[in-house]
Amino acid sequence: MASPAHDPGPALDKDGVRLTVDDAIATVTLTNPAKRNAQSPALWRALTEAGRLLPGSVRVVVLRAEGKSFSAGLDRQAFTPEGFDGEPSFIDLARGGDAELDGTIAEYQEAFTWWRRSDLVSVAAVQGHAIGAGFQLALACDLRVVADDVQFAMRETSLGLVPDLTGTHPLVSLVGYARALEICATGRFVTAEEAVNTGLANLAVPGEQLDGAVHDLVSAILSPPRDAVVETKALLQGAQNRDYEAQRAAERAAQGRRLRDLAGLGD
């Protein structure tokens, strides 16, 4: 990653989110360690904006967080009658119509969707607590490298809610329905060892080695030609929605595109 001498400065720095870009690598950092990077609608809008600001040169996005905790989840201020300054409280949202409520939640979800764009590979570097919305933000990324002190938990059900920030689909895809249900219904902690063993995390390392491990993974992802990685990601993303024969056909079509491009015969 870029040395300080080549740091172009943040492309975005507001509401607990900082985006920096160095050629092929973008870094999105949660920057409110005093509140354990608790999340709010303003933070979600900043995350959405970060995705829209990425230049075409970016191939890998690293998501990280300052402080001891990745994210303690939703800021509890959301559950107070006052809510956040300038924002409708959750109580106000509940009193609104179905369409308004659905639209508001859909807007919140946009902060969690762009990480899986086929033209990017996203890597979350996760330490300490990643709870509720924090867990779902880590799940929004393609890959997760965790510190050995990580503690994932899906605590929405204990608040009488459900996980609604796009985390249920990747969680079931990674660990299976039965374990996903058990994790969500009990709200228990998932440690680094279990995260690696169940596929939630690609790698666990001591906390002081987290940045280095992410750097090595990013360097490896950047090594192959970009188009080959993009095509491969799209193939793998679509595999669970295709049967065996359809996946074979998708492989043939993708390889045909790659061979034509390599031969200089692409569109």
Describe this structure in words.
- α1 crosses α3 and α5 packs across α6 (177-186).
- With 267 residues, the protein is an alpha/beta fold.
- It has ten helices and ten strands.
- The strands form two sheets. A seven-stranded mixed beta sheet has the order 1-2-3-4-5-7-10, sandwiched between helices. A three-stranded mixed beta sheet has the order 6-8-9.
- A hairpin with a 2-residue loop joins β1 and β2 (17-22).
Compact description:
The protein has 267 residues and is an alpha/beta fold.
Order of helices and strands: EEEHEHHEEHEEHHEHEHHH
Query: Helical percent range?
Result: 40-55%
End-to-end C-alpha gap:
33 Å
Provide a count of the helices.
10
Major sheet: 7 strands, mixed
Could you outline the blueprint of secondary structure elements for this entry?
Layout: E1 10-14, E2 17-22, E3 25-30, H1 41-53, E4 60-65, H2 90-95, H3 98-113, E5 121-126, E6 129-131, H4 133-140, E7 143-147, E8 151-153, H5 168-175, H6 177-186, E9 190-191, H7 192-198, E10 203-205, H8 210-222, H9 226-239, H10 244-262
Parallel strand pairs: 3-4, 4-5, 5-7, 6-8, 7-10
Antiparallel strand pairs: 1-2, 2-3, 8-9
